[in-house]
Every structure is written in structure tokens, then in C-alpha cells.
Amino acid sequence: MLFSPTNLSECFREWEDVEKDYQEIQDTHRLYKQKLEEMTKLQSSCSSAIARQRKKLKELSLELKTCKGDRRSSMLSPELLKFVSAMEESIKDKTNVFFEMEAFLPKKNGLYLTLVLGNINVTLLNKQEKFAYKDEYEKFKLVLTFILFVFSFSCRFLFSYRVLDALFNFLLVWYYCTLTIRESILISNGSRIKGWWVFHHYVSTFLSGVMLTWPDGDLYQMFRNQFLSYNLYQSFVQFLQYYYQSGCLYRLRALGERHNMDLTVEGFQSWMWRGLTFLLPFLFFGQFWQLYNSMTLFEMSQLPECKEWQVLMCGCSYLVLFIGNLFTTLGVVYQKYVNNSDKPKTA
Predict the structure, then answer these.
(1) What is the pLDDT of residues 84-103, one digit of tens each?
(2) Mind spelling out the 3-state secondary structure of 191-237?
(3) How far is the first Cα of the chain from the last one, in angstroms, to the nearest whole number?
(4) Residue 63 CA, distance from chain mean position
């Protein structure tokens, strides 16, 4: 209940309480600034120490490789060779530990984030903030996937207006641009996203932008239904991936087997295996649909009435997506299969 003074003496007592609280706030804020300065100094000291240690480890690793490649290395005793191997393994472990440490230290933005956001610090310095941002990213993807599914369904089966198609493509451009920014921030905070899946979003942004500029005409109408049907299927597969991958991540994190900032991205990841036989056919079908889109567009570009440059650009973009997605998926599946084969089987 708010204070409502009834006489002057009560006002004076309330004023004394306000003055006391005000002094405590000033003291607390002064302490906060002091701790903040101390934290900044510790961050700089820790970052510098890690950089020096990385340099020493790199030089040591190169020296060990040189020694092992020397002809005289065959004269070393088995104990020394074993010790050298242990040193090399320890160097790898320390490098991984430094990666974990740097996830909680401010760092310079990459070129893309610098161009988009400037030099603002995007490093989240505690686990709660990292988890909150990562979860918000996942929810953003799920909500936008649902919106894109409804939008593409409406354009494919209910309405046939170029203006609505343009709005749909504009939404795709905004969605993929936003993903590239958010994923760059996640990478700055320790997420281990495969390089291709990040580049995949850059190509998808370019493809959506080209589709947005494609003028209405006979060629556009020839490809329109195929394009919208593909996006419907892609949204469906992204729903499957989201629930499958988030379930795997939940189980693996509960077992302590995964990095805290791992996330669900378009495409198969190295930790996915259980239940893979259900998901892989959908992934491969979508990838070969990208190849089909590419071949269709290349055939359209050979028609005499083809004057739009967008036809060839979209065909090339779909071909790049097909090649990158297919070979990355096959490579990771093969690597996971080899790793599982090397593990000793238990009865």
C-alpha cells in the first residue's frame, strides 16, 4: 500500500527513510561499478593469457611434429614417444578447454556481424542468458516455419496473386537474413554450427531475393507451383527436424554428452543417429527436389522466350544447395557410421 502522509511529522519520517534508501542505492551502485571495472580487467587479463597460451601451444605442436618427422626420431625410446603422444593429446584438450573459456569472454565480432551490427559486444556472459537466447532462437525458427507453411499453402492452393507471392518471398528473405545474424551471434557465444549450414542460409537468402525480383510472366507462372510445393515440403521437413533434433539434444544433454549451446539447424548433424532411418529419406527427397528445381530452371533458361536473368540464377542457387546438402549429409553420416563401427560392442 502506498504511503499517504497525514501530517508533517510523518512526511519527515518518510523523507528520512527515502534518504537512507537513496544512500544505500548509491553505495550499491558504487560497488557495482567497482566490480564491473574489476571484471573488465579480469576479462582482458584472461583473454591475453589465453592468446599467449594458444601461441605457445601452436609453436610447441609444430616443434613436436618437426621432431617426430626427423630421421633421428626412430632412435627415441618408446617411453619418450609415448610421452610425446601424450603431449600432443594434451595440447588438443587444452585447445578445446580454451574454446569453452572464450565462450564466456568478450571477443571481436566477425566481418558479417561487424558489417550488420558494428562493433557492439554480442557475447553473453552467463549460462542463463546463453540458454535463453538459444531457446528463443529455436522458438523463432519453429514459429516462422509454421507461418511460412501457412503462407505457402495459401499461395499454392487458395490465392494466385503476384503481390502475395512477393510478400512470401520477402518473408523468406527476412527470415534467412535474421537466421544468419542470430547464428553468427550464437557462434560468438560458443555454438558449434557446421560451416555449410551457415553458408546454406546465405545461399537461401540470395535465392529468395532473386525470386522476389522475378517479374510476373509465363516463365514465372511455369515455375510458381513447383516452387511453392517445394517450400511446403521444406517447411514440413523442418517441423520433423525440429522435434527430432530437439528430442535428441534433450536426451544427450541430460546425459552430459553435448555442448550446452548446440542447436537444431537445417540438415543432419554428427550427433544424430538414433531414429535416423525415419528422418533421412525425407532429407534426401528434399535435396533431390532441389536438384529437380535446378534442372527445371536450366531447361527453362534454354527456351527462346526466356529473357529473365532470374531463371539461370535460381537454377544455379538450387544446384549449389543440392550439392552442399547432399555431400555434407553423406559425409557426416559416413563419419558417424565409422565412429560407431570403431566402438567396442557390449553384450
Answers:
(1) 788 888 888 888 888 878 77
(2) CCCCHHHHHHHHHHHHHHHHHHHCCCCHHHHHHHHHHHHHHHHHHHH
(3) 69
(4) 35
| Alpha carbon distances (Å) from 337 to 60, 256, 316, 328, 346 | 33, 21, 31, 14, 17
Measured torsion, CA atoms of residues 54, 57, 58, 61, in degrees rounded to the nearest 10: -160
Average pLDDT, the chain: 81
Residue 157: Cβ within 10 Å count = 12
Residues 6+ apart with CB under 8 A from 296: 223, 226, 315
Please enumerate, as own/partner, the contacts of 26-33 that have beta carbons within 8 Å and a separation of 24 or more.
none
How far is CA 7 from each of CA 1, 18, 21, 305, rounded to the nearest angstrom? Answer: 18, 17, 22, 90
Residue 189 near residue 123, CB atoms below 8 Å: yes
Q: Are 98 and 53 in contact (CB under 8 A)?
A: yes
Model pTM above 0.85 = no
Residues of the chain with pLDDT under 70: 1-6, 68-77, 245-277, 339-347
Kindly state the cell numbers that stand for 227.
Answer: 516452387
Q: CB within 8 A of 224, min separation 6: which ones?
A: 165
